[in-house]
Amino acid sequence: MKKIIALMIVLFVNTAIAADLYDPQNGKYLGQLGGSQYDANSTNNPYGQYGSKYSADSINNPYGQYGSEYSNKSPNNPYATQAPVIIDNGYRR
Prior knowledge:
By secondary structure, the chain is of the alpha+beta class. It has one helix spanning about 1-15, and strands spanning about 20, 30, 85-90.
């Protein structure tokens, strides 16, 4: 019974949360927070446009404008004034 409840929680969390990242200056889409490592739009996909540590559009690229700890557009910079904004899309259908 505990395994079933744990599985239900995992399924609910993976399918219910939908939050996207956008550059507040130009509205550029920067991927979906969380999600599956296989989802092309997920920031958790290490091979995807928004999750790769080599992609210019990724918050995981330590040398890119959205991932560098020194960039004013990076959530990894605690002093950034133009960091990406999170848009909560509610529940996925």
